[in-house]
Amino acid sequence: MEYLLGIDIGTSGTKTVLFDHAGNAVASSTREYPLYQPQIGWAEQDPLDWWHAVCETIKEVIYKSSIAKEDIKGIGLSGQMHGLVMLDKDGKVLRKSIIWCDQRTEKECDEITKRVGKDRLMQITANPALTGFTASKILWVRNNEPETYDKCRKILLPKDYIRYMLTGEFATEVSDASGMQLLDIAHRKWSEEVLQKLEIPKEYLADVYESVVVTGKVNQKAAELTGLMTGTKVAGGAGDQAAGGIGNGIIKEGLVSTMIGTSGVVFAHLDRPMIDDKGRVHTFCHAVPGAWHVMGVTQGAGLSLKWFRDNFCDSEISAAKFMNIDPYVLMTKQAECTSAGSRGVIYLPYMMGERSPHLNPKAKGVFFGITASHSKNDMLRAVLEGVSYSLADCMDIIRGMGITPNQVMASGGGGKSELWRQIQADMFNSTICTNKSTEGGALGVALLAGVGAGIYKNIEEACSAAININEKQEPIAGNVATYKRYHKIYQKLYYDLKDSFELL
Fold first, then answer.
1. Alpha-carbon gap, residue 400 to 176, rounded angstroms
2. 328 with 374, same domain?
3. What pTM value is reported for the model?
4. Total domains in the fold of the chain
5. Among the options 20, 102, 176, 240, which is catalytic?
6. Interval 136-145: pLDDT, tens
7. Is residue 207 among the annotated active site residues?
8. Is 148 a member of any domain?
């Protein structure tokens, strides 16, 4: 039997899943690690935490499955996008990684826009200068930690640091590289012009490949630490969103997915690059060779619910531990106790600033409309709805670009919640589907590795073998009308509070 390994290096933890050639999960393992926030709006993680989590989870899935390591034919890597990993001449990490949701680089975004030109930057990278993207982080380190920058010799993304630790190779692929703001999106290669204008040496960057290409093989040291066989092929893989797109079968036009993890994403396949001229959604290279995708991102999706859990749900956490279930199960039950619209409580999910549709690192989270008659249940449901309003904003922009979804696939942790899926169905006024496999990004990169290893002829064959529609939820007419009314208030609140965010 041939097996494939999908490794997803996320923000809250790393998940490693072993799949058979039909896309069935044989064994999985997850390890969490900390997020460091030394200042408000900053977000960092230690790359060695990712590596230790990868080693532990690989060993565990091999042990759980009892398969021979020789039967693992390929490894795919997915990871949180945009994170900055800086290595010195010896390949050692120089500082904690500044990750995707960090908002410290507003001045550097202005610098990038001035150096490259606003319109030219959009033409080449398909996006305006964004605080979350990697280029602004590079400039921040150069401007604020020159001693660290002077020692830097390689710049990697989170999953590509894991590739380096597994194989010793410096490589990336087009989908993840798209989020660095250094890639020529249309031509799928590093932009000499942007690099020159930003004075970033090209040799600091990894070689860039298509996502199905084998970029290295497991070396002896990594084999000893993980239990893998030396020489196991490691494919290019994908950034987490493109990986999730593959894992949900979003490989042709007309297909759209939503993913609620730490962030929330609406993701649509493109056969050609299309750009929102206002920069409200992002266009990147897809993990499908010769294809692109557009996505809208809300920064604080699952993050909002986790924050609420950690600060206000001690009793649910304790009860869930006693019952041996996930606290989110109990929290969802509580949210179901109130009606659509949360009895007038509206939540703005801007806990880490925002990207879509409002490019504003200073935006803040808000509960609006609370009265003495409201309960925690109302606030809980308002969190689910606030995140979904933001995704609905993204969906509206994508539809405005002429992209009409034939179906919407829900995934991520939020996609497992029947209530959260129903809220999305009602807000989008669209059928919501789920895939039989809930492994998302890990499955997506395992399939990419399967193509690289020759198990599948191409991505289409891989998705056909592994992806099946599980269940569908239809919108509820009464809820559609309710959310349409409240969505207008939700949208107005941002503009009413925008100046106050700046003052705060």
1. 25
2. yes
3. 0.88
4. 2
5. 240
6. 999 999 999 9
7. no
8. yes
